[in-house]
Amino acid sequence: MTPQRGFTLIEVLVALVIVAISLGAGVKAAGALANNAERLAQVSAAQWCAENQLTELRLTQQRLDIGESAFSCEQLGRSYVGKQRVSPTPNPNFRRVDADIADSQGVPVLSLSTIIGNF
């Protein structure tokens, strides 16, 4: 009688389990990469909104009154809601300006701060 060649059922099942675990890990990694790419796009667009708002304040060279105001912005087809806070600094010739950006549902995305001369 010649020896049988091939794999036993146990060996085939172990190989299938290893392949299934590997594929599951690959799918999970691909999902994480997709989520990270989406988050990066959202934060980048929110940063553009905040930078645009702060640059507009610098370019208008108007006297900044202490307080809060709201603004809105659209970048990459998404709508963002912003809150601008102007606060005093130890030097009365300068103001601190914070631009807080949230998505359309109000979830905070980004906060950007700068110091602007008070003209």
Summarize the structure.
The chain is built from one helix and four strands; from the N terminus they run H-E-E-E-E. By secondary structure, it is an alpha+beta fold. It has a four-stranded antiparallel β-sheet with strand order 1-2-3-4, with helices on one face.
Structure, described:
The N and C termini lie far apart (101 Å). It is rod-shaped and about 100 Å long. The longest helix has 52 residues. It has one helix and four strands; from the N terminus they run H-E-E-E-E. The chain is α+β, with helices and mostly antiparallel strands and 119 residues long. The model has no long low-confidence stretch (mean pLDDT 91). Helices cover 44% and strands 34% of the residues.
N-to-C span: 101 Å
Number of helical regions: 1
Q: How helical, in percent, are the residues? A: 40-55%
Q: Largest sheet, order of strands side by side?
A: 1-2-3-4
Number of strands: 4
